[in-house]
Amino acid sequence: MSADDPKQRGEIESKAAFYIYGGNPTGTITQSAFTFTTKLEKTGKPGMVVIYDNLKGVADKTRLVSGCPVRYSMVPNPPEKLSEKEFTAAFDNIIKALTTPLTADEKKSGKYQPPKPPIVALTGTLAEIQDHFYKEGWTDGLPVIPPTKEKVVQMLKGTKHGPDEIVAQSMEPEKLFVTVEKVAINGVMAGAKPEYMPALLALAEACAKAKVGDLARSTNSFAFMQVVNGPIRKELKMNTGMAAMTPGNQANSVLSRAATLFLKNLGGQEVGVNTMAVQGNPAYSFVAPENEEKSPWPPLSVEKGLKPGESAISIFTGGWSHVGNYFYPGDGLEVLAKDLAAIELPSYAVALISPARATMLKERKMSKEDVKDSIFKNATQTLKEFRESQYFPTLITAGIRRGGSYPASYLTDPDDKVVPVYLRNRLEVVVVGGDGPPMMQGWRMGYGTTISVDKWR
After folding, report:
1. How does DSSP assign 409-434, residue by residue?
2. Domain ranges of the chain
3. What distance lies between CA 260 and its chain's CA centroid?
4. Could you report the per-residue pLDDT of 214-225, keeping only the tens digit for each?
5. Rounded to 5 degrees, what are φ and ψ at 172?
6. How do 349-353 and 427-431 pair as beta strands?
7. Fewer CB under 10 Å: which end of the chain, C or N?
8. Check: CATH 3.40.50 for 6-107?
9. CA 440, 441, 447, 453 torsion: positive or negative?
10. What is the pTM of this model?
């Protein structure tokens, strides 16, 4: 489940004559398999990877980016339906991959220098440009603003940082470096104005630091949520009140769209190559400006260590499950918690609470931490239910044995014991929305990464 395990790798290097790496049929694990085996190849240890035929694009892309043509053999997916003939062929291919002499290409060394792309992709009519950009996979499927030299220069005026300054050393999923100019180009395409540049640069940095590569590659169907704090919300005239997360406001929509373009154009994301989402996600990227003016609690950015009044963007990943809206009498937190406990676990969760609901909770003398505590204490399952999660035998068990956050008693306590299924530090609360009924909803979101916007002005 990891791109590297130094202990295991060391054992293979010292004891094994060769290795065969087999993983499960997901994009994330396939990429990890080739990343791990590349490290072994560099030590001179011969080996190969067994992959599933629907993930050939992931294998080829990872080998290209790593510069190491690790050999692999494909088997049909699902593996439990392999015929005896297919099983025999799979073993023959494994032996062939391990024993066939190296080709001239496989013996090459040094650095591969790809040809530099032209500065001007093409000239033509607007329709021709839109068609070309779409065919190249540079858009989200919608028309874009052509990033002419003049428009990019104008966009760069929105920040004091130079066009060649590095914003991110490793943008997922292909770990590519990102410059201020590249962010400006994609900002133009997304429909941004020059004054959006500090927010766009913070968003690009957040996308890189959030390490979304595994999620972008996964056969699961992830989404990304942005929470915006501080004066930048007003400067960009973001919608912080009614329908805050609904398309229609320019800044809200541009930031949402920019995250998608960043992953595609700055991170190298390609559907069917390194993005293998089986179903996809309609909430692929959404923006939730926190209503700080109507919130009785400190904003998310302050919770994450930034100063009051400092502008920030936080990015959360996950998003394949959602519960709500709730406007029950009482605080409603117990109902929210029980529904969150039914979401595939283990997980993180973000509760989006309307100003009216936040005021009600504040009148009950509840702080934001009290709200998190209530969700934590009521989001429970029996250990039998929790252990039935597909992740328990691997991720949770391994995490506990490495001294992870879940108590070691989760491995030994009786099945009927009722336990919290979220970790206390995996719950976030954000006040979002305008006046109206006391609504509240919960999203399977986590891995929050908060970046200051002000440092990119």
Report:
1. GGGTS-TT-EEE-S-GGGEEEEE---
2. 6-107, 149-321+448-456
3. 11
4. 666 676 777 889
5. -75, 160
6. parallel
7. N
8. yes
9. negative
10. 0.85
